[in-house]
Structures are given as C-alpha cells and as structure tokens.
Design brief:
By secondary structure, this protein is α+β, with helices and mostly antiparallel strands. It has seven helices and twelve strands. The chain has one domain: Phosphatase 2c, domain 1. The strands form two sheets. Strands 8-7-10-11-1-12 form a six-stranded mixed β-sheet.
Amino acid sequence: MPLTIETCVARHTGDRKEQQDRVALFAHPRMSGTMLAVLADGMGGHSGGAMAAEQVLLKAKQNFEAYAPRSETPEHLLASVVNEAHLVIKLTRFTSEQDPHSTAVVFMLQPGRADWAHCGDSRLYHFRGSQLVSRTQDHSLVGEMLRSGKIDEEAALKHPQRNVLLSCLGSEREPRIGHGNQAPLMAGDSFLLCSDGLWGYFSDAELGAAVAGMPPREAAQKLISQARERAGGYGDNITVAIVRLVEAPARNGNGNGNGAVRR
C-alpha cells in the first residue's frame, strides 16, 4: 500500500524564562523516503541547556547526511548520534562555566521500517491508530521505580523526584541508550516524540486519541494548549514532533507515492 507522511514539530517556552528544548526534521539528501526526527531537552541553567540540546541536533544532522545503509545499520547510526553528541557536550564543560546536559530522542524513518534511540526521559510513542504499540522507557529514578513495581503510573506523574535522571548526555557516565524499531509499517502508524513538559500531563490514551484523531499540526496545537492549562502556571518547556503515515492519494502516471512528505 503506497504511503505518504504527515509531519509537524512544535515548541512552547511554557512558564520558563528560556526555551532550552530543540527539535528538528531532516530529509536525507540522497535517499528518497528517508528522514530523521530528533528532539533534545537541554539542562544546565542559563544558556547551557540550550547549547547542549543544539549539539544533539547538529550531530544528528551531520551523521544522518553521511548515513550509508550498505555499511552502517540504523542502530549504529542512532547510537553514534547519542554518543558523539554526549562527547561534544562534555567537552564544552572545559571551555565554559556552564554544566550542560541534554536528553535525546532520535527517530529514523525509511521505506518499510522505523528505528529509534533515546537517552533520558524525553519519549517516543508508537501508536497504531489510537492504540499504543510501544513507548520508550525513561532513564530516570521514577522510571526505575515504576519498572520495579514500587509505584504505579499515577504515582509516577506526581512523584517529587520525577525529574531525577539516571542517564543523560553530558554527564560523567557514558549515556544509557535505549533502542527500538518497527517493521513493516502501515497506514495509521504514528510516532510522537516529546519532552517531559508535554507527556507529564497526559495518559497514553489521551496522547493516542489526539495523534490519531486530527492532522499533526492540529494535534500538536491541542496537546500544547492542554498541557499549558494543566500546568497551572508552572509548566516546563514543551516540545513535540509528530510523524504519521497515511495512505497516499491516487495519482496518474508511474510512481507509488512512497517517500512523499507533507508538512
């Protein structure tokens, strides 16, 4: 079945003084139907977090443009983005008085498959229709407590230490990298990348309903608006990217519509 892609990225500063999140979509310069989405939630005070998040995007773009599937697996590419961005962020600590750190979610879409990697507590959700297929597991203290059964999902959202990360880019320890993939793909598959400034205010079902029920731009607007309302004046930076696969419209002539991107 020929597929086309609908995408959107969006950010909101929330109630913070500075936007330290970063997000971007990149089309591969040579391979049709291949794209990369990357999201980073920077930490470090002043402009340090923004600088760290920016390094994630720069490294993602560089490595993705050099990606050659005959000599490199998707998992290797995505891991290289996280590891090399981590090294660059660490090096900036020696040339500034800042202490920059960042999370990272890197998602690559190719014809017939999707691959992703993450570090920290920014998330990737995979929905088929409105149903959750999978989501990344947070590298956080509360995430570990949740996986061990010490707390439930409701308690996790309200836990006073929910912002304590066990792994991120720029720390002394090497980053913990979680990987995932999906193949084959079908119409109705959606991938949501977001920072904790968004997912912290929604259940999985709410996110799935929004992503499946409206075009990506409208879904992003609705989710950000609701997150702002639920934050009650104490909201973090909000960042989101949505990639949704839909049936390609019929057209005359040769070609099947694979690889088309609609923004």
